[in-house]
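Think of the structure tokens as a kind of shorthand, similar to the way a musician reads notation: each symbol stands for something richer, in this case the local conformation of the backbone. In the example below we present two proteins back to back. Begin with the first one, reading the sequence and then the tokens, and try to describe in your own words what changes along the chain.
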Amino acid sequence: MPIPAKDIQDHWIFGEYGGVNPSITDSSTYTFLNPETMKALFEQEMEGCFLYSRHSSPSGTALADSLARLEQTEAAMVTGSGMAAISTTLLQLCSQGDEIVSSRTIYGGTYALMKHVLPRFGIRTKFVDTMDLKKVEAAITPRTKVIYCEAISNPLLELTDLPTLSDLAHAHGLPLVVDNTFSPLLITPAVHGADIIIHSLTKYINGASDGVGGAVCASREFIARMLDVNSGTSMLFGPVLDSWRAASIRKNLHTLHVRMQQHSRNALFIAEQLDMLGLKVHYPGLRWHPQHELMNALMNPEFGYGGVLVLDAGDEMTANDLMVRMQAAKVGYLAVSLGFYKTLFSCPGNSTSSEIPEEEQTRMGLSKGMVRISIGLDDDIEDTFSRIRRCLEAVGLILADLAV
């Protein structure tokens, strides 16, 4: 299997004057020497030719080409946010009267889009446990147009058996769309049969929490459809990623392999330590995790098990107290998002998954006491854990270690 990190490393684009970084084209529109070339470009993409930056730009194209290499797809396109990538993809695939079969454990914004916005366009979503293939198949009807899931779900870190789910989707003539935001390089969904891979570039791929972006990685044919001047949802909704931000994200992408390895090492250490204290931790790298073997089968092992873990503090008050204390102890920041070089933590039931109704959160197993922790790139992870331990003692989740 190709190594995505090496493919990105070998993707060289020189700047206009030989710079080691591609030049940033600060233009919204582009000139032509021949009117016929402009006319032709309205009909189809032409390599090296650009028309208008809502359609594409040199900086956006350079980032998209790198992302296609990352996800081992034929092509890719970038958008102004992860939600823009999700919404334009689903609206390209579905129209009035169509249905989506989606995992029930997905990002809250995606849930809200499917539950409240897409029905305005006559598109209905059935939320099912995608770990149960019988339930997935039972939800498929002649109106179903797509199966949607997350490779590692937000926030419960449940895995999707991508090979079997893709087989089921393809048996019914359906594309499998996978959000891989939590697991770039860890899992390569296209290798396991996924047709379209979506990212919020805001998270691990950028890694600096200083910008927002999204991406769709798929076949050349599908990307061309999304960019079609007459019917492409990305072209016509216009979710443009600014050239300067695209160039910045592409530079950060070249350190992704190093960052993911360190995120994973640190998260595994913290998860194991919390587990040894008898706390309830969700992390697929733990040997007892019900999907540990599935993770081993799906993952690219050199990048580890990921940088996010979930700690169940029992109740909302304890969780809030713990997070405030961890921020005061400089473990990290009480903030949403993930993939930053500093640790970030939040209660997803009240933040990133708050769009999901409480009764559905309960059915999913998402309690108000759960704390999602995106572990940072800390050099001294043992010191980080010592700080976390003192906070756990202070809120009464563990007994004080008198030997320390």
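Once you have a description of the first chain, move to the second and do the same.
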Amino acid sequence: MMTADLQPLREALQRRLDVVADREFYARDAAGHLAALIEASGEVDRLGAQLGGDADPMLRHYLERQSYVKAMDWLNARAC
């Protein structure tokens, strides 16, 4: 079960993945899309850095390697 303290990380990861997938946004405003991607990535990095020392090593690995789909899969597998 995913603990409530991981929910903000899950939401930030989802926002980042949504920005990456938004091709219409990119086509309409490439600079704005890049800015949104940088902002979303920064939030993921900030929340990842706040993980406690007892955080699962695989989750840390996925975040460090920027394997964000795998990190989402890991989080979703623990959500109820």
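Compare your description with these statements about the second chain. The radius of gyration is 13 Å.
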